[in-house]
Amino acid sequence: MVFSTDRFITEIGKQLNQIADDFINDMADDAHIVARRLTGELDNEKALAHMNEIGTLAEMCTNMKHDCNALFKAFEGMFRREHGSGKHAATGLDAMKIITEISRDIHTVAPHLDWLFEDEECNIIQNTYNSSFFAPAEGQPV
Fold this sequence. Notes:
Blueprint: E1 2-3, H1 5-39, H2 44-83, H3 92-104, H4 106-109, H5 115-118, H6 124-130, E2 133-134
Antiparallel strand pairs: 1-2
Helix pairs in contact: 1-2, 1-6, 2-3
């Protein structure tokens, strides 16, 4: 089996984009609920509290989007820096070393995504790693 750097980077990018999109959609739903309460609010203090809540939800979305982009760039940058830009430049062992190194720095790189590495029930990184292997065609060098 051969590890495909391209597959890993492409899939991790898709996964991180989906995480960001899902989070933003959830927060937008929450903000919509708060906005409905805001429109009917006559008390200025309560209205201000609703506006602050919407602002907090927006900030959380910004942070999540930033962290998803930062984590993608960390993976992409480390693979390119360590192994060049070839499709199969890194081995599976190289990839595990990179994943381990990024996981050690996750609180600096993307603190809102630490659960990807720390939650035992989350297998997004592991599944992405596992799906990045392929069997070379007969006669192809390994």
